[in-house]
Each structure stands twice: as structure tokens, then as C-alpha cells.
Write a structure and sequence with these properties.
By secondary structure, the chain is α/β, with parallel strands linked by helices. It is built from 11 helices and 12 strands. Helix 2 packs parallel to helix 4 and helix 6 packs parallel to helix 8. It is globular, with a radius of gyration of 19 Å.
């Protein structure tokens, strides 16, 4: 059987996507790759490749040697980091995607590309942003996501490459540290709440955004790649939604478990500007209709699960 390649595997998504893929397909079928050295804490019984996706020949060699059929392309710079290094962000985000698509065309691979709520901009409707709407982002990260969606559509239309993607909202995970995104506060807040009982947030208290718990996000990726391609009208990329809250509302839910938790605000103007350019919520009816997307976690169950896992990790580290 042909195998699955995950690029950028040591990032936030990879830490939970890889175990999910291994459980379904077996670890011997999942090839993971990254520019970084595989840490001892990352448990993977399959094969690891040190891979720079901006180097076409490296990518071609890995795909050929392992007879790869599906590529989950996660390698990218996230929003806040991309804004600090826009030229590098374009090179990494777009250069690596173009290489992945070209190798997929040559070797008949399917490709998952994670787009983002960052693909929208100030002129996008703020509430229930439609699947098909204006996309004029004002961040380099958003520009690369829109261009990535269009490039994936081009390869599908021009070469019939099986490309699929999701416009992911902010992702919340207990398995990996934040990676430089605008919504990282929704991960950091749990670690600070459990360890210190307080947190200083870099977004305003009323900044409302869509979010998603990582188990829902990884399940959405796998379900989309398993879906009947003939039913997919949009492909690159589907809006998906699950949770919707402000920092203040998240803090209040955390207090249900840590009663003396305190939150303060020290706003980062760069990340606040990025957040303000995004919609407050997404309409994900196309994903629900075309491949049956339904989230499992609400705010209460996500917060409870996050606190349980992080508390356990802190106790084990002592």
C-alpha cells in the first residue's frame, strides 16, 4: 500500500494529527518529516525524515522512496511570525506548497493544505462569513493562504491533482506549545491558569473569533481526505467552525474549574490588528452539506478536557 507523508510534523497540528493517522492506518504507513530534529518526547513508531520542503529534490526523493499517496502539508510560518518575516514567510509558505503540488502531480498524490480564517480580511462580512465571499487579507500570512487556496484549485483544475483544504480557525491543543499565531492566547491561557492562576492576554477582552479544539480539527482533516471527491464542490478550502468566544468569555469558563483565576490585558497591536481584520464567525454550511462535518466539542467540554490534560502534565513534570 502507498503511504502518507506529513510535512511540518513537529508543529501544533502534527502532534495530534500523526497519532490519529497512525491509529487508523498503522504507524508503518505514516512518514513524518520536519526541518527540526525529532525530540525524544515525540513518540512515533514509524519513519522520520529530515526534510526541507522548499528544496524540490528533497521532497521528490522522499515521496519516491516511500511511495507516498497522500501528503498532509503542514509546513508553514504562522501569522505573527509571518508578519515579522514577510519575505521568508512567502518563500516558506508558497515555495513549499508549490513544490508539494508539483511532486503530487508527478507522483499522483492527493494533497491536504490547511488554509485559515486568516485568508479573510477587513472587507469580508464580520458575522457568519460565507463560504464564497471577498478575501482581501492584510497580513502576509493571509496573503499566502489565499494564494495557496488558488494554487491548489489551479492544480486540481489544470492537472486533476486531488487537492483539498480547510479554512481552520484558531486551534487549541494541550499536546504542543503555541507556534506564533494570533490566537495563541487560547492555548497559553490554560498553561498559565494551571501553573500560576493568572494570565496577561495580548488581545482585547472582547475580541470574538472562531476557535476549534484540536481533536475536532484533526478529525475534520481526515474526514475531508476520506470524503467522496465527486461530492466536493469547493475543495480549497472549506470553512469549518466549532467554538466561538472572546478572551473574557474563555476566562469566565476557566473560573468554573479554577475559581481564583485572574486575567489581565496587555494588548499586542500587531496581533490585535490581525485579529480585527478577521471575521468574528464563519458559516460552515458547505462543509456540513458536502462531506458531513459536525464538531463534537463545545466550550465547556473543551475547557474541561484542556485543564485535565495540562494539570496531569504539570503533575508528571514535578
Amino acid at each position: 500500500m502507498r503511504k502518507i507523508l506529513v510535512t511540518g510534523a513537529l508543529g501544533q497540528i502534527g502532534f495530534e494529527l500523526i497519532p490519529a493517522l497512525c491509529q487508523i492506518h498503522g504507524p508503518e504507513m505514516v512518514i513524518i518529516s520536519d526541518l527540526r530534529t525529532l525530540p525524544a518526547t515525540f513518540k512515533h513508531e514509524g519513519h522520520y525524515e529530515h526534510l526541507d520542503c522548499t528544496k524540490l529534490h528533497q521532497l521528490q526523493e522522499v515521496v519516491r522512496r516511500h511511495d507516498v499517496e497522500t501528503i498532509y502539508h503542514l509546513a508553514a510560518l504562522l501569522s505573527a511570525v509571518a508578519e515579522e518575516k514577510p519575505q521568508i514567510a512567502w518563500k516558506v509558505n508558497m515555495g513549499s506548497l508549490l513544490n508539494v503540488l508539483e511532486v503530487a502531480r508527478q507522483h499522483d498524490c492527493s494533497v491536504f493544505f490547511p488554509s485559515s480564517i486568516g485568508a479573510f480580511g477587513p472587507s469580508t462580512p464580520k458575522n457568519a462569513a460565507p463560504q464564497d465571499t471577498v478575501q482581501r487579507p492584510t497580513s502576509m500570512y493571509g496573503v499566502t493562504k489565499v494564494a495557496g487556496e488558488m494554487l491548489c484549485d489551479y492544480y486540481h483544475g489544470r492537472f486533476t491533482t486531488d487537492t483539498r483544504g480547510l479554512r481552520l480557525p484558531g486551534l487549541i491543543s494541550h499536546s504542543a506549545p503555541p507556534g506564533g499565531g494570533t490566537t495563541d492566547y487560547a492555548v497559553e491561557i490554560f498553561h498559565h491558569a494551571v501553573r500560576y492562576g493568572c494570565y496577561s492576554c495580548f488581545l482585547k477582552p472582547d475580541t470574538r473569533l472562531d476557535m476549534m479544539y484540536m481533536p475536532d480539527a484533526t478529525r475534520a482533516m481526515i474526514e475531508l481526505m476520506d470524503a467522496d471527491g465527486d461530492r466536493l464542490k469547493h475543495r480549497n478550502a472549506f470553512n469549518v467552525a466549532s467554538l466561538n468566544f472572546t478572551p473574557d468569555e474563555l476566562a469566565e469558563e476557566i473560573r468554573r474549574h479554577i475559581s481564583d483565576f485572574q486575567i489581565t490585558y496587555e494588548v499586542d497591536p500587531v496581533r490585535q490588528a490581525i485579529a480585527d481584520s478577521w471575521p468574528r464567525s464563519l458559516d460552515d454550511s458547505a462543509a456540513r452539506e458536502e462531506w458531513g462535518w459536525v464538531p463534537k466539542y463545545d466550550l465547556g467540554s473543551m475547557v474541561r478536557d484542556m485543564i485535565e490534560h495540562i494539570t496531569k502534565n504539570v503533575q508528571l513534570a514535578r
